[in-house]
Amino acid sequence: MKDFVEVTGMVLTATPVGESDKRVVILTKERGKITAFARGARRPGSRFLAATNPFSFGEFKLYEGRNAYTLAEVTIQNYFEQMRTDYDAAMYGMYFLEVMDYYTRENNDECEMLKLLYQSLRALINENLDNRLVRCIFEMKTLVIQGEFPGEPKEGEWLEGTLYAIGFIMNTPIRSLYTFGVKENVLLELQRISEEYCKRYIGHHFHSLDMII
Fold first, then answer.
1. Nearest 5°: phi and psi at 180?
2. Domains parsed from the chain with CATH numbers
3. pLDDT of residue 146
């Protein structure tokens, strides 16, 4: 009998396979980004139907194969159901998932990236936070975790609040990242800086950005 693997993670992508199956990519705490097949997940009434949708976060029990895993059981702790009704949050959320899919790898320690993704999605559905600010924080902290963040801009004159926000993002643990707001003029500067850093250090076009106004 094959051994099970139990992981905690979030579904990043789900694509149809055959007549009724799904291929899912899951960002996990224990094994980084993995690929798994969910047999019959597209059939009406399947116990995997909702659990294999993007944003689903929980515990996954898998059979380990040579090149992929097969889903055996799943217990979802958070479906992020608000994404179904909040179009703006959903578009930002899909962008965050795409960034994670691009950056993370199998068998890497991606625990911090998973934490960032989870807390960032929670921030998107928080009505007291501006999604534009959430995006800036997410982008900058991603670069920090990846060791690519250059720190404060070396050129130009920036508002004191902007520089303070950058320092906060760099040095604050993920669990406390989304605990501040900024004025519009600071937010605009953060957007400019984050956009420039992403172009310079990521250099990849994320298709989900085309949907964000």
1. -145, 160
2. 4-79 (2.40.50.140), 85-211 (1.20.1440)
3. 96
